[in-house]
What does this fold into?
Amino acid sequence: MRSPIPDYLAEVHDTCGELLGGAVADYIPELAAADPDTFAIALATVDGTVYAAGEADHRFTIQSMSKPFTYGIALADRGLDQVLAKVGVEPSGEAFNEISLDPDTGQPRNPMINAGAILTHSLVEGEDADARFEHLRQTFSRIAGHPLPMDEDVFTSEWATTHRNLAMGHMLKAVGVLDIDPVDAVEGYVRQCSITVNCRDLAMMAATLANGGVQPASGELIFRRRVVRQVLSVMTTCGMYDAAGDWLTTVGIPAKSGVSGGIIGALPGQVGIAVFSPRLDEHGNSVRGLRAFERLSRDMGMHLMDVTRDARTSLRGSYVTDGDHPTEVHKVQGDLRFAGVESLVRAVSAQPPRASRVAFDLTRVSEIDDVSTRVLLEVIRRLHLDDKVEVLIIDPDHVLGEHGVEVPYARRLHHVRELTAS
Ligand code: GLN
It folds into this structure.
């Protein structure tokens, strides 16, 4: 059987490829030379499979799609507090290249607009400009899965014309938020924007964010969870500049666009997506890219706010076993998060135990998050101390207390069969 997924992507590619509106960015002279008809879509799953349609090997400069990753590196290098002391997290509602600061804090409003991105670049660890850039380029390469070179022509072209960005660098220096030389900061930022990628690389980079900071193919932990949460949050509110609200309501995927014509999207826990087509709308977002994301989100139910209902039905059922040691067994299912564990606890605490032994059958549970673990441990403690019952946990895959957490007051079994044997 041939997988229908590549065929679906090819259909989206063909349909969106009919759009001819928008214009190639030309304020960076070298970008104006891009072929406006180039069009590619790539989708990478959190287990490292990449699907692609169109010219997915075509290379282009990463431009502003670099910003979330640089933000992640700055957060990893400096810690959240130091970064937040320099760059805010509020959507600006302005164009990406607005020369502006937050009037209350005197900081750039967020790391996705140029002012914030120049400052973020300055926070990347490195003793000088070269070391900073090399650390950044190598980290980008690990996220993509192979070395990413810089496009010297695009760099030279932007560097020669980047007066607005230099104005921002000097402004940041003048108000005292930028610690390094402003020209070095802007040059480093322009180099960062000139790193080249193709759609497959970008999809894999986005999938690393979707996968909680673990590169799906290599398994390498690049960013800790807390960093990923921060990056994805800022992408959600600020990634699409002055079109962020429209994007969040229609597409609903944390995203970032770049003037070369790319858009990346990271859907937590599921996929990384990248689309490339150079013609841009008035906000600087790829016209075909926007449409392709709209299609993918709608057709594949990828809107962040379209939440599944499984969390509410964690208790599959309860029964009491026959035999010498009657046991009340609660069969639990799915991933346990707060809403799931709450419904479970509500059902279990609604009436006193029906036998002198109570068992939780976790055979069909695949993951239990921190809060659910704590709640479940407390339920076990209370059943044991208050209701004076023996508590059993049937947990063949060791999902409860996965990270070395002790489970006092309960005996572990590996299979329901052991209930009748013990
Ligand atoms: N290098 C570009 C600039 O600073 C990046 C802008 C973008 O992609 N939106 O203007």
User: Anything to note?
Assistant: Residues 129-144 form the longest helix (16 residues).
